[in-house]
């Protein structure tokens, strides 16, 4: 996955400078719908786009609606967009553009009120809302770099861009809930060079280790917003309208397919997905030439002293999937629902606890059942 920094994030040296607009001393701000706690939300680190999830998130939608209702100026630009424009939180539905006419004094005054209110007092209100950064008129301010102040950026003369953290995007911040939550670091990449797996569950710990790609195909990555013959090929295989455009219907079909075949839930036509969807396109495999018996023997010898569990990714999982006799379409090196069901079936037949954990006993049970 080749991601290029979006134009607005090409910030210059981190040197404090003047804001992009004259700031009012007593700005009109937003009114929280709940009583705010004394404790302040943690300042979000910079959490760049990792997944392709072009759906408006609830926290950004609430912010947009409240800003428009409070100030009544300008007009609302987009929240979510396709995943073809480079690194952008719009591609995860956690950024919003408030369109402002540079020639309209009332609109500019409203923008000044909002920007001043968000950034004042060390970004106190930005933290309450889970705002990571604001860009306006060639300047960027980030709550994760207060010492840098307003830094040089590019574009955005006609709109205020607001990017939110995952807590802010999901609405899990004190401004909306009255409670402070730990930092949500968002989706995790499972295979190197792919997008992060989408999830609705906050992540407060480090991501699991990333696995190298276990299979490569002749087909390139295609994500929401892309067009062309490769997209049309996928649509034919997924049995959706062959428009040649990676649209909402195609995105939903890709997600359904990934869920059904133990593929990280990226919503993207990536290498693991292509290998399952179009086996004839596979050009190389890290793990190959294993029969079910040889996969079991390999597992007994090499993995008996460790534990393989749901959510794990890598070569060991791929060997396990072959040992379980899963269909080729389900052998992707990611331990999810299909693999879990097969492991529990082995455990049940052997009279073991159906916990889904694969240890020496499970490998021995597979070996015994094959003989």
UniProtKB/TrEMBL annotation:
<feature type="domain" description="Peptidoglycan binding-like">
    <location>
        <begin position="240"/>
        <end position="277"/>
    </location>
</feature>
<keyword id="KW-0732">Signal</keyword>
<dbReference type="InterPro" id="IPR036366">
    <property type="entry name" value="PGBDSf"/>
</dbReference>
<dbReference type="InterPro" id="IPR058593">
    <property type="entry name" value="ARB_07466-like_C"/>
</dbReference>
<feature type="domain" description="ARB-07466-like C-terminal">
    <location>
        <begin position="57"/>
        <end position="158"/>
    </location>
</feature>
<dbReference type="InterPro" id="IPR002477">
    <property type="entry name" value="Peptidoglycan-bd-like"/>
</dbReference>
<dbReference type="InterPro" id="IPR036365">
    <property type="entry name" value="PGBD-like_sf"/>
</dbReference>
<protein>
    <submittedName>
        <fullName>Uncharacterized protein</fullName>
    </submittedName>
</protein>
<dbReference type="Pfam" id="PF01471">
    <property type="entry name" value="PG_binding_1"/>
</dbReference>
<dbReference type="Pfam" id="PF26571">
    <property type="entry name" value="VldE"/>
</dbReference>
<feature type="signal peptide">
    <location>
        <begin position="1"/>
        <end position="16"/>
    </location>
</feature>
């Amino acid at each position: 996955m080749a991601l290029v920094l979006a134009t607005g994030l090409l910030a210059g040296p981190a040197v404090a400078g003047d804001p992009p607009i004259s700031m009012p001393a007593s700005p009109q701000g937003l009114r929280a719908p709940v009583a705010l706690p004394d404790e302040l939300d943690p300042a979000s680190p910079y959490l760049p786009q990792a997944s392709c999830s072009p759906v408006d998130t609830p926290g950004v939608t609430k912010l947009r609606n409240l800003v428009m209702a409070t100030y009544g100026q300008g007009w609302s630009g987009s929240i979510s967009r396709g995943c073809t424009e480079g690194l952008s939180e719009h591609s995860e539905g956690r950024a919003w553009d408030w369109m402002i006419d540079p020639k309209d004094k009332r609109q500019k005054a409203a923008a000044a009120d909002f920007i001043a209110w968000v950034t004042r007092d060390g970004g106190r209100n930005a933290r309450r809302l889970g705002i990571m950064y604001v860009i306006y008129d060639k300047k960027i301010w980030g709550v994760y770099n207060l010492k840098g102040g307003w830094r040089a950026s590019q574009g955005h003369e006609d709109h205020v861009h607001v990017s939110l953290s995952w807590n802010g995007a999901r609405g899990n911040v004190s401004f909306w809930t009255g409670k402070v939550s730990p930092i949500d670091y968002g989706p995790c990449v499972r295979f190197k060079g792919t997008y992060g797996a989408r999830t609705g569950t906050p992540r407060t710990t480090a991501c699991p280790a990333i696995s190298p790609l276990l299979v490569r195909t002749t087909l390139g990555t295609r994500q929401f917003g892309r067009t062309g013959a490769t997209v049309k090929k996928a649509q034919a295989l997924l049995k959706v309208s062959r428009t040649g455009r990676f649209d909402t219907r195609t995105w939903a079909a890709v997600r359904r397919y990934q869920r059904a075949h133990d593929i990280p839930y990226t919503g993207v036509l990536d290498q693991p997905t292509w290998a399952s969807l179009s086996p004839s396109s596979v050009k190389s495999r890290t793990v190959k030439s294993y029969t079910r018996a040889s996969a079991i023997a390999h597992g007994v010898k090499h993995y008996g002293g460790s534990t393989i569990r749901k959510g794990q990714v890598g070569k060991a999982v791929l060997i396990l999937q072959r040992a379980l006799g899963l269909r080729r379409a389900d052998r992707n090196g990611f331990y999810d629902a299909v693999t879990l069901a097969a492991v529990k079936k082995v455990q049940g037949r052997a009279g073991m606890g159906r916990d889904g954990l694969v240890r020496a006993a499970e490998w021995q049970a597979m070996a015994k059942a094959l003989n």
